[in-house]
């Protein structure tokens, strides 16, 4: 999972090399950055988080600290350069449904 923080919020990008997901979220971004973490780690973390409250993500070196109400966790990141390019559909081929 690639997490990209910038002026337009945070984007979460994932792919299994056949399909890709690029989902944006509103966020108060204090500084731009990119972090890559294994998607299963993020899935497991998300399923254990409280349903209310604010998440704070902070990347330092090769770790991503996730703070949430009642605790925090530190995740070892992988190089964003190792994250594959998302597959985008060929817009010249396809079916239009109106």
Describe the protein's architecture and organization:
The chain has 98 residues and is mostly beta strands. The protein is 10% helix and 40% strand. The chain contains 1 helix and 7 strands; from the N terminus they run E-E-E-E-H-E-E-E. The protein has one helix at residues 39-48, and strands spanning 2-6, 9-15, 20-25, 33-36, 56-60, 63-68, 71-76. Strands 3-2-1-4 form a 4-stranded antiparallel beta sheet, with no helix packed on it. The longest helix is centred in the middle third of the chain and has 10 residues, at 39-48. The radius of gyration is 15 Å and the shape is globular. The termini are far apart. The mean pLDDT is 86.
Amount of helix? 10-25%
Helix count from the secondary structure assignment = 1
**Order of the strands making up the biggest sheet:** 3-2-1-4
Q: How many strands, which pairing sense, and closed or not: the largest β-sheet?
A: 4 strands, antiparallel
Low-pLDDT stretches:
none
């Amino acid at each position: 999972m690639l997490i990209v923080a910038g002026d337009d919020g945070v984007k979460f990008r994932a792919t299994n090399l056949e399909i890709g997901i690029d989902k944006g979220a509103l966020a108060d971004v204090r500084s731009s950055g990119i972090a890559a973490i294994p998607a299963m780690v993020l899935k497991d973390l998300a399923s254990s988080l409280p349903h209310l409250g604010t998440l704070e993500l902070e990347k330092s070196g090769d770790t991503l600290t996730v703070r949430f109400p009642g605790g925090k966790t530190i995740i070892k990141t992988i190089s964003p350069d190792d994250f594959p390019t998302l597959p985008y559909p060929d817009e010249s081929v396809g079916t239009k449904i109106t």
